Amino acid sequence: xxxxxxxxxxxxxxxxxxxxxxxxxxxxxxxxxxxxxxxxxxxxxxxxxxxxxxxxxxxxxxxxxxxxxxxxxxxxxxxxxxxxxxxxxxxxxxxxxxxxxxxxxxxxxxxxxxxxxxxxxxxxxxxxxxxxxxxxxxxxxxxxxxxxxxxxxxxxxxxxxxxxxxxxxxxxxxxxxxxxxxxxxxxxxxxxxxxxxxxxxxxxxxxxxxxxxxxxxxxxxxxxxxxxxxxxxxxxxxxxxxxxxxxxxxxxxxxxxxxxxxxxxxxxxxxxxxxxxxxxxxxxxxxxxxxxxxxxxxxxxxxxxxxxxxxxxxxxxxxxxxxxxxxxxxxxxxxxxxxxxxxxxxxxxxxxxxxxxxxxxxxxxxxxxxxxxxxxxxxxxxxxxxxxxxxxxxxxxxxxxxxxxxxxxxxxxxxxxxxxxxxxxxxxxxxxxxxxxxxxxxxxxxxxxxxxxxxxxxxxxxxxxxxxxx
Length: 470
Known about the structure:
The protein is rod-shaped, with a radius of gyration of 50 Å. The chain has helices spanning about 5-10, 20-65, 80-85, 160-210, 225-275, 280-315, 325-335, 335-340, 360-375, 405-410, 435-445; strands spanning about 70, 75, 95-100, 105-110, 125-130, 135-145, 150-160, 320, 345-350, 355-360, 380-390, 390-400, 445-455, 455-465. The strands form four sheets. Strands 4-3-7-6-5 form a five-stranded antiparallel sheet. Strands 9-11-12-14-13 form a five-stranded mixed sheet. Strands 1-2 form a two-stranded antiparallel ribbon. It has eleven helices and 14 strands. The chain is about 55% helix and about 20% strand. The protein has three domains: about 65-160, no CATH class; about 215-315; about 315-470, Histidine kinase-like ATPase, C-terminal domain (Heat Shock Protein 90), CATH 3.30.565. Helix 6 (about 280-315) packs antiparallel against helix 9, helix 7 packs across helix 9 (about 360-375) and helix 9 runs antiparallel to helix 11 (about 435-445). The relative contact order is 0.07. By secondary structure, the protein is α+β, with helices and mostly antiparallel strands.
């Protein structure tokens, strides 16, 4: 099946690849960065070009100022060729100059050149226009103090900005060219790196696709730390699926194995009752049928309860639960009266809260099964309670009997373990009750503990307190 078909079957549209996202993101970043760099490069180029050509203006103006001499009491200008050679380095630009004597009399050059706003300095650069075109000017003042002439002569030299603009644009183009080459190389390397980084994902997807549908064992693959999070999440999901499948298989297996014999016995007894003519004998058979039906109902309840508890272990949200409330609810419900009519049930709960983080329904089912096991196999009185001991929360059931032998105690908690043969109901089966309690305890980070003392045999679900629970 193709990738497109798989996407269509799952009802999910494939999004853009990581490579496409990376290329798009880097392209946008380079475009924005290129615009910023272009503005910065143009500003730098314009400054550099202005400084370079300002030096030409300064040199030309100083050469002209140096060529001024005094003859017959008047300033005379002998324009040097070197000044115009400097300005000719910008062949596309237009040049303007003016030499003026005292009182602003123009000695040579253009008569209508713009002047700076201030004349406080002997040398000053300023911007103005020349015949409608932007230009750059410099004003240089030369002072004379001779017998024949005393005063100042001003030299103004101007140049349009074409060469400056071309130089600034050239610097900008060179900077953007380097950026373009570097950006393309960066994109190429990014694509190669992304493909290399995604190879573990491709190997992981290939390994999962080739797995047997029944193989829910954890994935073992050497992947980068970032991908390991995905692997762990997938392993956790498959672990939950595996537990759910195991629960269903166990329920089916237990149903087929445990129900076949009692159902066959009930059918045989019903056949005997239908053929029996003696009323007294028929009543005995009916009583056996009723007893077998009660045991069968109890077994079915435990099997379904175990399946429910295992299912909720992965699906139910953990909440703060006070174990005292569970013990009190079980005591007040009075379901034990149906299991053991006339039984002596007592309640002992602590004054302080006994908090845990768990599923209330699962804990309640486990406690009911502990109470049912004590009523079926223990000795009166039977006590249910909740307390804190050594910093841990305990939900316990105690009966007055000595408890099972060490050999049987080691097997308690297994499914369909044999009953407590040293009590008043020899040969009875403890069924799934203790297995349910042990599963609940282990699910929420606790244990199923058993102890015997002068007060009797106690079995308890011990869990971390809510503040300590993970």
